[in-house]
Each structure stands twice: as C-alpha cells, then as structure tokens.
Amino acid sequence: MAERKSAPRKAVVGDMNVERDIEELFEKLRKDRETAETLDYYAPLNALILEVVEERTYQNLTQEELARRLGTRQSAISRFENLGRKPGFDFLQKVARALGGKLFITIHGQYAALVPRKYRELINRLARERDTTPEAVVRELLVEALERKMGEELFAEIIRTVSVPRKNPVVSAGPEESTSEPWEDDELLSLAS
C-alpha cells in the first residue's frame, strides 16, 4: 500500500523575525531530499491557497461569506486555506468564480506569471481597445518585451564584438602599418539606427 503524503501545515505569522526564522527553517528542510520533494509537491497548491486568501481579504470577505458564495460551510474554506485537504477541480473552479476570477492550470508553471493587481486595469483597458482578451494582451506584451530584450542583448553583443580594439584592425596589403582606427561605439550606434 502506498504511503500517504500529509500536507505541510501553513503558519500564519505577523512578526518579520518569525517569518525570517520560518524561511531559514524551510531552507534547512529543502536540503533533505525527501522533505524538499514534499515541499515542491505542495508548492503550487500552497501558492494558489495564498492567492485565494489574498484575494478574499482584498475583497474584505470572511471565510463565512466566501463559503456562502460557494454554497458550502465555513469549515470547508478553513480546511482549504490551512491545507487540511486537497481540493478537487470543481471546488477550485467554484472558488475562482466566487472571487470573480478564472482558474488557470498549466504544466509549465515555471513560465507562468501573475499580473500584479496595480496593472490589471491597464491590461483590461488594452484588451477592450484591441477587442481581445486580457490573456492575449498579456501574452502579446510579454512576447514584445522578450523580443526587445533579445534584440538589445544581440545588439550589445555585436557592439562588444565589433568595438573590441585590435592591434591590427585592418590587414594591410603592404609592409606599411595600418592607420585605421577601430570604430567607436558612437559610430556603430549611428550606423545601426
């Protein structure tokens, strides 16, 4: 019979020293392979729970009020928020809808990001202006930023390569020394634009 993994309990703390102590404890725990695997196993669920708690408190909802929206009891919300049970897909969908959100699950979590609340209205406005979805706007902005970054890095590499001073920047056909100077960065920048 397979051994059942128990969910690690989440500590609620307000003191920064306690938070730092907990972070240090988790760093020590991660050094143990089996413990690290358990922490990694529950990390996505823990992140989701923290997001739900943050959204619930942002909306000034109690666990009881959220439970009413879901048609369940407060104890079910408490168990969920304290990792007392692993939630099912239907429950997660209901929680997302009750908080005005949309559930998103991916196997590529290391590449997914949550848009900070302060930028969401801008994303929504851009989506309306472009007659598209917020997801499409986020994807488009991310791709544009990555392409711009790649272009900047490529251009910087070209500048580094071309502007490196060389002893003999131009090979001479005759015995005389070359009088050519290596290009200055300003000259390269003006050529590139």
Automatic annotation (TrEMBL):
Region called Disordered, residue ranges: 168-193
Pfam families reported in the protein's UniProt record: HTH_3 (PF01381)
InterPro entries named among the record's database cross-references: Cro/C1-type_HTH, Lambda_DNA-bd_dom_sf
Every HTH cro/C1-type domain range: 52-114
An example molecular function term from Gene Ontology annotations: DNA binding
Acidic residues bias: start-end ranges: 178-193
Protein name: Helix-turn-helix domain-containing protein
